[in-house]
Design a protein that fits this description.
Layout (H helix, E strand, L loop, with lengths): L2 H20 L9 E7 L13 E2 L14 E3 L7 E4 L2 E11 L2 E5 L1 E3 L5 E2 L2 E8 L6 E9 L12 E8 L5 E7 L11 E6 L8 E7 L3 E6 L2 E7 L14 E9 L16 E13 L1
Parallel strand pairs: 3-6
Antiparallel strand pairs: 1-18, 2-7, 4-5, 5-6, 5-18, 7-17, 8-17, 9-14, 9-18, 10-11, 10-17, 11-12, 12-13, 14-15, 15-16
Length: 272
């Protein structure tokens, strides 16, 4: 074999390996297949077949005394460009609110019971921000929050910038009772580099990871819905809040705005 041909083969093999590494995650060996995803390939507003906008709590602060106004179909707050979704928190007046942002939901367009969910994202920094990637029940079969559950894959508040929090909330375990279950991990470059925030959820337990490093686990105690309401379909929520009972505990630095959460992809895998 000539030296030129050897070089060409090396280049081809390298390209194949690079392509395989940059492609979608492979969980086939675990019996999973890709069932839903958004790679954010088309510029403009987020794909309306996959995402909607939640604006229902604007007037009452979403139960957390949040200060932002979530807009609907507004490129200033939610736009896809260069293969990524950008959620912008902006300091601007809308009604009696001094900030705007976006809260995207997959409800009735992407709802799942069990599976692996991956979201690759860069989180915005700044005191007063409260960024989250989380899940809520589609039907609330067991009652209003927290009875039907909540799964927080990633939360980050600006006054504690290096700390990623994952949690679950149920009737028995929630922050109002100071019984909620949570885990934390330090990710110092979460504001400057992409990381993969991952949920693995089945009938036995919930596990949450950053870049395949598990930092939270919640097991099914088989005691009933008050402890485990996670046997119903849930949908995904992506948002950047401003202020609130937690995010605003140490005030808001108005010099930071605008700030942006950047999402490279969302992928959902379920058992075949």
């Amino acid at each position: 074999m000539s030296k030129l041909l050897q070089i060409q083969l090396i280049i081809i093999i390298g390209f194949i390996l690079l392509s395989a590494c940059s492609g979608k995650g492979d969980y086939s060996s675990l019996g999973y297949e890709l069932v839903w995803h958004d790679e954010f390939e088309k510029d403009g507003l987020p794909d309306s077949t996959k995402w909607d906008y939640d604006v229902s709590g604007n007037e009452w602060g979403w139960g957390n005394n949040e200060l932002q106004y979530y807009t609907k179909e507004n490129l200033k707050n939610a736009e896809v460009k260069n293969g990524q979704l950008h959620i912008h928190a902006i300091k601007e007046q809308v009604g009696n609110k001094e900030y705007t942002s976006a809260r995207l939901i997959s409800k009735n367009k992407g709802d799942w019971k069990y599976g692996i969910i991956e979201v690759k994202a860069i989180i915005p920094d700044g005191r007063g921000l409260w960024s989250a990637i989380w899940m809520m029940p589609t039907k609330s079969s067991y009652g209003i929050w927290p009875e039907s559950g909540e799964i927080d894959i990633m939360e980050n508040v600006g006054f504690n910038p290096d700390t990623i929090v994952a949690a679950v909330h149920t009737k028995a375990y929630n922050h109002n009772l100071n019984t909620h279950k949570y885990g934390t991990i330090l990710i110092p470059d979460c504001h400057s580099k992409f990381h993969i925030y991952k949920l693995k959820w089945n009938s036995d337990k919930i596990e949450i990871f950053v870049d395949d490093q598990k930092f939270f686990e919640f097991e099914n105690e088989n005691a009933g819905y008050k402890e485990w309401p996670f046997d119903e379909a849930f949908y995904l929520v992506l948002n950047v809040a401003v202020g609130g009972n937690w995010g605003g505990m140490h005030g808001i630095d108005n010099s930071i705005f605008p700030r942006t959460m950047v999402l490279d992809y969302v992928r959902v895998y379920q058992k075949k």
